[in-house]
Amino acid sequence: MLSGLAAISLLSWTYILSGAGTGMSARSMTKASLFPHRMAGTPFHPAGWTSAYWIIMLLMWWVMMIAMMTPSAAPMILLYARATRYAQGKDQLGRGVVPAAAFAGGYLLTWFGFSFFATLLQRGLEASGGISAMWMASTKAGLSAAILILAGIYQLSSWKHRCLNHCRNPAAFLSQHRRSGRLGAVRMGIEHGAFCVGCCWVLMALLFVGGIMNVLWIAVLATVVLMEKLAPSGPWFARVTGIVLLAWGAATLAA
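Above: the chain's sequence. Below: its structure in token form.
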């Protein structure tokens, strides 16, 4: 199972680095700036998206979420796989059932739902000139600051830390949400994914600030997620990140 998760993560990162089917170079869209909106260029109102482009954007978001979230979800999935093998050894599950894969599938399905709404939001912001169609990043200080401040507030909220606690305690989650069978495994994966989305959605919204295809920004956010979920001081790290984001948002307004 570990090798499978590693392969999924590696393939996802490869897809993102290759441009995610957009026809643009991820390297060319990767820029480092304290105020990214200044580098996004003049906003304009592009033509409507074709059906093919909608699909490309949806896949871009979903594969990006898989690349960013799979490493931090691995402990939960691996623990579930271990528990499943133990149950199979005790003849508590039918042979040939692969509930660990079903659990992972349910988890990724939740992030597909998030990706769908993120794609709709991207289209809306792009159509209004809020983000650049070329750089896929905020063009306005007000929008950047609003997202940064919202993210900072959420990082300090009790809801964030309630969801983070579920993500950081896989054994407790499995004991409280245990269900049998393939459909039960899918449902558990969806439930864990829901907590994960609840924990990290606002961090993913920061992609609109730094650039959706900015690989440096993607890597930084993936590292933040990993630290929050797996580091011993994860909750403390999340709060510090919130304070930094609040200060960054204020600086963006003042700049």
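The chain has a mean pLDDT of 88.
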